[in-house]
Amino acid sequence: MNENIKHINEVFNHGIRDNLGQIVHQLVQVFFVGLTLGMMRTVVPALAEQEFGVPRGSFLLLVTFVVAFGFVKGALNFVAGRWSERIGRKSVLMLGWASALPIPFMMLYAPNWGWVVAATVLLGVNQGFTWSMTQTAKLDLTLADQRGLTLGLNEFSGYIGVAVAGIVTGYMAQELGPRLGLFIFGVTVIVPALALTTLWVRETLPWARTPHKSVATANIDLPRYPQHIGENPSTWEVFMLMSWRDRRMASFCQAGLVEKFVDALVWVVFPVYYYRQGLDLTEIGWVVGVYGFTWGGAQLVTGKLSDHIGRQKPIVWGMWLCALGVASTLWSSGMLWWSVSAAVTGFGMALLYPNLSAAVADIAHPLWRGSAIGIYRFWRDTGYGIGALSLGGIAWATGALESAIALTVVAMSISGGVVWWWGEETHPRLNPRN
Asked: Residue 85 — left, alpha, or beta (φ > 0 → left; ψ -120 to 50 → alpha)?
């Protein structure tokens, strides 16, 4: 009897220290998730014309694979949040990895651009399920006062993976050819990730269903849950709350959507822009890698920073710093200058990215936090699709990639102002419930 009680206490104990083993497993998972995303970010857009037959200047056709990725990932984030509360976090994570298995084979045998778009649809399914679950599972395990650090660690691991993959696939494409290089890289990432999920990842839903322990252990006031929604709301109730009924949640959702304009720009516009300016694939991989490494690495600091100074300030500062970094791309040229611009942009993303998710987690009730995060991520990753369409459309209309860069600067500047005006500080210690 005493052993059973001890086991229950161990299973449901919250905090990074008490759940370090599972948190490390989840960090390994999100690193593999980042590698899977990163394999499509350097080689594919740069060689779209040469390898996959996309006509030069067909900006709208070029962005179709990012548009497909964004809308699919956004929708699957929404689904993943609800499913994770019904069938569990681990089951959704495994579905995500299973959906990625065909991607390397499709890239190897793709006869045209349509296959690339189809592979990217599966990538969207993979990312919507896997990245959502690694984030949600770690929030289940940790304390309320550790959310910034937790999400910083999560995004650090994921975006270091994105950066590593962008560089490694650049070299592999140069040495082995783009198709074979992507195939070998993809298989050596996706298969081990699925195996590790099956063998070592544990279900964390029981932790989410005992939130009182995390609050008591953190010794802080209860978070500012919206007062006009119950503990077990319907999907539509949570969607309405996140999208417009709660002004704070709406401000975070719009910021998440707009900041994906930056990532869509880095993914689909910058590789083409740099390639036309004379950089080769490995150089493009390093410039884009600087963005990813800075974004990923700095989140070790910026996530923890928000546990001390709050979420709202880093979010607003990050939006505006991203706008500055993107704008500076046009002020000069050369690999060194573009690397500096990429670093500034990446640091801006590090300030805003984990702290938007942490702000949503601060406000959402633990019983519907998975849904809230899924809906936030729905709006955020739909930004890939909206952003890519907007950037491709303005580039097509003007005939210049520079106009897409300018649009991103304007959008980020305005969005940061919306968070400053509509949002509020959500950290439960700094702004406890009245």
From this structure: alpha
What is the chain's alpha carbon radius of gyration, rounded to the nearest angstrom?
21
User: Which tens digit of pLDDT belongs to each residue from 57-107?
Assistant: 677 788 888 899 999 999 998 888 889 888 999 999 999 999 999 999 999
Cβ-proximal residues to 235 (8 Å cutoff; 6+ apart), any chain: 82, 371
Q: What is d(CA 176, CA 316) in angstroms, rounded to the nearest whole number?
A: 43
Centre a 10 Å sphere on the Cβ of residue 309 and count the other Cβ atoms it contains.
13
What's the predicted TM-score (pTM) here?
A: 0.80
What is the tens place of the pLDDT at every residue in 344-354?
Answer: 999 999 999 98
- Residue 286 near residue 270 (C-beta atoms within 8 A): no
Q: Which amino acid is at 133?
A: M
